[in-house]
Automatic annotation (TrEMBL):
It is an enzyme of class 4 (lyase). GO terms for molecular function: 4 iron, 4 sulfur cluster binding; metal ion binding; phosphogluconate dehydratase activity. InterPro entries: 6-phosphgluc_deHydtase, Dihydro-acid_dehy_C, DiOHA_6PGluconate_deHydtase_CS, ILV_EDD_C, ILV_EDD_N, IlvD/EDD_N. It comes from Aurantimonas endophytica. The gene is edd. Its EC number is 4.2.1.12. [4Fe-4S] cluster binds at C156, C223. This is Phosphogluconate dehydratase.
């Protein structure tokens, strides 16, 4: 139970709504859990294939079937900075498993694309769909049924949600997520943003822009701004799928390696072969999902999770809605100021007290469920700690989270929040449903009423900006960017341009069926508009010059046109064939044809 009745009420309605699907899900994983891993019942040929490449000790243990075998799902590649540290993890995990008499095998590699590389490029149109590909690739690896538990090596945007969907699909297996940690701090994020805007205005050249970007993204680890990747790590900890205090420890440090060894030992201790069996499907219940949403709001996290959390919950038979997310935002105070909601980065957040401080504050305020089952074994209060290296240089010790923030400008208490609410809201009106993140938008800019300017491609908006055609108040309607149209790419290419116009004193806003995600900044943006334009949604009936009202305070999004006239309009249906080929997009035609709506998780499942 939480102390806040509103949290309880929202949790109860999610539980009631989900009862049929959740009960069916639990029945499935209990049946599978009772069966146990199939190693002991595989034919000799099957089993021989499963350990053919192992050494003699591992072969002996696997053939006996009496000791646990840990499956490693890795999203390693050495182009993606956040995932490059994972190159070393499988050997650390295997050695740790052997030291406790167990075995570990890499079960599968999964794709891991970098949205930072593909921003504004054709490849970004595969990004959202990569989440479901990752879930399917994980399923292929785990389908060998050789494993008693699994550890998941992933950090970034679509990767962790895809891994969670798979972990819950195989919910009879215990699961622990092992992060790589953020890169050390580089060029401050506000300075990077300033250079981007100067480049957009033509005041600095490409050499200055590349130098700034290179100083920002300069080494192994997660990008340090609080986007989807770092929101993922927060979620895995507050939902009980990390070991406590492990989210934001820098890569390639003794503490990082010690946490990896600890996570391995813990995963091996919670299999059905022991006395602490903790299947992932029981860790992620309605309370854990609500805890995740509360954590998202308290930290000003990524709007991508208005889709990912819905899809992740659905994999466990839980029906989460945008209304739930919006209502939880109204209850949750904003306790963190991390870029783009402030000047600090995640290293500053961690140094100020990090996840342990945040979890304790929310628990003390009664805003989190403590009585949850976690991979660590205790309730959530066990996560109100900070992890440190033991005096032996190998083990992890934990102390209670500090009572005082190390930097009140970055991380504050629940009694003195930066805002009384989390700042992610659902918008409704005659244009359908949408999401807005207002935590980084100044209050005086949260309501915009202005004529529409219509674009069907973000490059068209840039061309209009370069031509000087946007020096006025307007609402940019960038449509046919939804999952059915082109895979719902992020539209961050627009952020510097609209930011420049805002700084010039114009009242501007964005309305789109595409995404902006965790780096959404100071421009009011109604995103994930549903139904999308390709599905004939009302956004497809907006005409150039129509008056649009976006009210981030009241939670409304409307076109101010006579209702009968608006309803009589035929939706535009431009030629989208240019989005169907190149960079692998032709391989995803089936995804575009079957994908669900954004408010249902934009999933193909």
């Amino acid at each position: 139970m939480t102390a806040d009745r509103r949290i309880e009420e929202i949790t109860d309605r999610i539980r009631e709504r989900s009862a049929p699907t959740r009960d069916a899900y639990l029945a499935r994983i209990r049946r599978k859990g009772a069966d146990g891993p199939k190693r002991s019942t595989l034919t000799c040929g099957n089993l021989a294939h499963g350990f053919a490449a192992c050494g003699p000790t591992d072969k002996a243990r696997l053939s006996e079937g009496a000791t646990p075998n840990l499956g490693i799902i890795t999203a390693y590649n050495d182009m993606l900075s956040a995932h490059q540290p994972f190159e070393r993890y499988p050997e650390i995990i295997r050695e740790t498993a052997r030291s406790v008499g167990a075995t570990a095998q890499v079960a599968s590699g999964v794709p891991a694309m970098c949205d930072g590389v593909t921003q504004g490029q054709a490849g970004m149109e595969l990004s959202l769909f990569s989440r479901d590909v990752i879930a399917m690739a994980t399923a292929v690896g785990l389908s060998h049924d050789m494993f008693d538990a699994a550890v998941y090596l992933g950090v970034c945007d679509k990767i962790v949600p895809g891994l969670v969907i798979a972990a819950l699909t195989f919910g009879h297996l215990p699961a622990i997520f092992i992060p790589a940690g953020p890169m050390t701090s580089g060029l401050p994020n506000d300075e990077k943003s300033r250079i981007r805007q100067l480049y957009a205005e033509g005041k600095v050249g490409r050499d200055a822009l590349l130098e700034a970007e290179s100083k920002s993204y300069h080494g192994p680890g997660t990008c340090t701004f609080y986007g989807t990747a770092n929101s993922n790590q927060m979620l895995m900890e507050i939902m009980g799928l990390h070991t406590p205090g492990s989210s934001f420890i820098n890569p390639n440090t003794p503490l990082r390696d010690a946490l990896t060894r600890e996570a391995t030992r813990r995963a091996l201790s919670i299999t059905a072969l022991g006395n602490e069996y903790t299947p992932a499907g029981l860790v992620v219940d309605e309370r854990a999902v609500v805890n995740g949403v509360v954590g998202l709001h308290a930290t000003g996290g990524s709007t991508n999770h208005t889709m990912h959390l819905v899809a992740m919950a659905a994999a466990a038979g839980i029906k989460l809605s945008w209304q739930d997310i919006s209502d939880l935002s109204d209850v949750t105070p904003l306790l963190a100021r991390v870029y783009p909601n402030g000047l600090a980065d995640v290293n500053h957040f961690n140094a100020a007290g990090g996840m342990g401080f945040l979890i304790r504050e929310l628990l003390d305020r009664g805003l989190l469920h403590d009585d949850v089952r976690t991979a660590w074994g205790a309730g959530l209060r066990a996560y109100a700690v900070e992890a440190k290296l033991g005096i032996d240089g190998q083990s992890v010790i934990r102390a209670d989270a500090p009572r005082d923030s190390g930097d009140p400008k970055v991380l504050t208490t629940a009694d003195q929040p930066f805002s009384s609410n989390g700042g992610v809201r659902m918008l409704t009106g005659n244009l359908g449903k949408a999401v807005i993140k207002v935590s980084a938008v100044k209050p005086e800019r949260r309501v915009v009423e202005a004529p529409a300017k219509i674009f069907h491609d973000q490059n068209d908006l840039k061309a209009a900006f370069d031509a000087g055609d946007l020096n006025t108040d307007f609402v940019a309607v960038v449509r046919f960017q939804g999952p059915q149209s082109n895979g719902m790419p992020e539209l961050h290419k627009l952020t510097p341009l609209l930011g420049v116009l805002l700084d010039r004193g114009h009242r501007v806003a964005l309305v789109t069926d595409g995404r902006m995600s965790g780096a959404s900044g100071k421009v009011p943006a109604a995103i994930h508009v549903t139904p999308e334009a390709k599905a004939g949604g009302p956004i497809a009936r907006i005409r150039e010059g129509d008056l649009i009202r976006l009210d981030g305070e009241a939670g409304t999004l409307e076109v101010l046109v006579d209702a009968a006239e608006f309803e009589a309009r035929m939706p535009e249906q431009p030629d989208l064939s240019a989005n169907e080929f190149g960079m692998g997009r032709e391989l995803f035609a089936a995804f575009r044809a079957t994908v669900g709506t954004a408010d249902q998780g934009a999933s193909v499942f």
